[in-house]
Amino acid sequence: MEGASLIAEYVGVGVFALTGAIVAARKGMDPFGFALLATVTGVGGGSVRDMLLGVPVFWVHEPVDLAVCLGVGLLTYLAGSRIPGAMTGQRPRTALLWADALGLAIFSTTGALKALSNGAHPFAAVVLGTLTASFGGIIRDILAGDVPLVLHREIYVTAAVVGAAVFVLGLGAGLPPALAAGFSILAAFTLRGFAIQRDWSLPPFRPRAE
Amino acid sequence: MEGASLIAEYVGVGVFALTGAIVAARKGMDPFGFALLATVTGVGGGSVRDMLLGVPVFWVHEPVDLAVCLGVGLLTYLAGSRIPGAMTGQRPRTALLWADALGLAIFSTTGALKALSNGAHPFAAVVLGTLTASFGGIIRDILAGDVPLVLHREIYVTAAVVGAAVFVLGLGAGLPPALAAGFSILAAFTLRGFAIQRDWSLPPFRPRAE
Amino acid sequence: MEGASLIAEYVGVGVFALTGAIVAARKGMDPFGFALLATVTGVGGGSVRDMLLGVPVFWVHEPVDLAVCLGVGLLTYLAGSRIPGAMTGQRPRTALLWADALGLAIFSTTGALKALSNGAHPFAAVVLGTLTASFGGIIRDILAGDVPLVLHREIYVTAAVVGAAVFVLGLGAGLPPALAAGFSILAAFTLRGFAIQRDWSLPPFRPRAE
Fold it and tell me: Where would you find the membrane-spanning parts of this chain (chains A, B, C) (predicted)?
């Protein structure tokens, strides 16, 4: 599990870094701006998780994740300005949504896993998984002056909660960790995917007039 | 004091969670959006306080506060969409302001108390009380794209500073903690209450032309 | 080095606090609003750095920095409302840019220094220096509803990265810490200064059409 969990974390960091770089592209930033937005988005959620847990922040002593963010940021800058059509039209928006969905699914699970490994209450582990999954994107959207994705109408937070809850419940039911993680990542990504493609949503709040 | 302090903390978390849920209602979010905004607003200030103090974050191992936030978020969703007039007109705005005022008063005091208990300098305890009281609301308002309440003209930060300072000075003067806490919560709430009702404010900054 | 490093830190905190107070002036806040914005901007970057490093946050037990922020905030309120022309026209904007540049240069270096002293990987130290330098300003700009300076086109993040990298590489090459710090602060400040005065920038991203 250890190795698979590390790889999942790198993938999650990488795809979130990509969403940060896409926002940097839309803002017309320079290469270091790409690097900063990619880094803050890629490692933001996990950093908040580790600070809340009171454990050493994952990238301070072992900076592979930073290298991933930096690489993704600079590659996006280079590729996006050279490959015709890579960053025009609807394409960047679509890429951002799907990369964000994959990061959301992975981090809701790895966030809950790290919380449990550090003695958090199962209920708190679901909340920490949800926060890990949504915080990087929140920082990215606020920095860019966009309406955070979490505030949109289609299913978003729900997918993160479902992912983290499936994992915690799966472990509780005795599933092997790798299997529980597979289920929960798949569940969260599928749910969010349908939300992106078919505008799935739960009933939004409607006040009742007097 | 221990028991009373815990109850005060739950009340503070609950009323801040309510303000988060009211914002979720205005944004037309789904039930999980209510839960997220209620949780982030309810436990945000105390989480920042605990991370700055370097102590375990209060809700990670003992998630009663999370249950309070979740309950408040879902109840607000249900009640607000069923009870006629509960969330229309000026009512939600008024409820938000007063709930925020109560949370502000409680957290300025409990924030200063926890800071002192963990060896913070009295001056730093006043600052930590102020931050605990204002940070949840800042996160809520930024997420929602509103101008943070702390930036409004009427007395706001001042009430939090007064609350925390009255508590720290009261303890220093030898008052029993429960009495000092009672005074300081009352002082902060009254001050903020007058600001809401009568637009009380300190002299705002006016530049002097050449 | 210890004493010089402390003085540099106070200067950095003070000039960032000044930029927070200038924003408070533009928003027409009251004296406690000045104090809050000055404090959050002055100690924000260093607080995030210390929380990421998992070390006690610098101002909790030794609140000289808080006193600096409070003093700068109140002095700006008083001087700005009394000295004719101090806060009208282009002057506050110019003062904010240059104070921010000085704070950026100092914090990129002291941030990297503190990270290395606490066992961070050299690469992570450069990132932590950059975050320390930019985070206070990010909080200030987001609170004020401005587009964060880090998102502007001219060189900003780049100056912080260069400062932190010069310092880490200088130490690695065997320079005495004080000399490495002097070089790196000078490099970052000069770079950012040219960006302010002559609109220096790196090539911004330009998508290539199909």
Answer: 6-25, 32-52, 64-83, 95-117, 123-143, 155-173, 179-196
Specify the range with the lowest mean pLDDT, choosing from B22-26, C95-99, C151-155, C185-189. C151-155
The CA distance from B15 to B28, in Å, is 20
Asked if residue B73 lies in contact with residue B21, where contact means CB atoms within 8 angstroms, the answer is: yes
User: CB neighbours (10 Å) of residue C135?
Assistant: 23
Would residue A205 count as lying in a domain? Answer: no
Taking the Cβ of residue B33 and every Cβ of chain A, the question of whether any pair is shorter than 8 Å is answered with yes
What is the torsion angle, in degrees rounded to the nearest 10, for the CA atoms of residue B60, residue B65, residue B68 and residue B70? -30
pLDDT one-digit tens code per residue, A64-89:
999 999 999 999 999 999 998 888 88
C109 touches chain A (CB under 8 A): no
Residue partners of C179: CB distance under 8 A and separation at least 6:
C170
User: What are the tens digits of pLDDT across the range C92-134?
Assistant: 999 999 999 999 999 999 999 999 999 999 999 999 999 999 9
Q: Is B180 exposed, middle or buried (0-12, 13-18, 19+ CB in 10 A)?
A: buried
SS3 content of chain B, % helix, strand, coil (to 5): 75, 0, 25
Q: How far is B19 from chain C (nearest CA, A)?
A: 19
Do the Cβ atoms of C196 and C101 come closer than 8 Å? yes
- Determine the residue type at B144: A
- Alpha carbons C207 and C205: distance in angstroms, whole number: 7
Q: Does a structural domain hold residue B178?
A: yes
Find the radius of gyration of the CA atoms of chain B: 17
Domain-located, residue B203: no
Domain total in chain A: 1
The closest of A16, A24, A18, A13 to A143, measured between CA atoms, is A24
- A78 lies in a domain? yes
Number of CB atoms found within 10 A of residue A167's CB: 30
Are C27 and B151 an interchain contact pair (Cβ–Cβ within 8 Å)?
yes
Q: Nearest C-alpha of chain B: how many angstroms from A124?
A: 6
In angstroms, the CA A7 to CA C52 distance is: 23
Query: What mean pLDDT do residues A9-24 have?
Result: 96
Residue-number span of the structural domain to which B67 is assigned: 2-198
Query: What ipTM goes with this model?
Result: 0.93
Cβ atoms < 10 Å from Cβ of A68: 23
How far, in Å, CA of C84 to CA of B20, rounded? 43
Report the Cα–Cα distance between both ends of chain A, in Å, rounded.
Answer: 56
Residue A1 has pLDDT above 70, yes or no: no
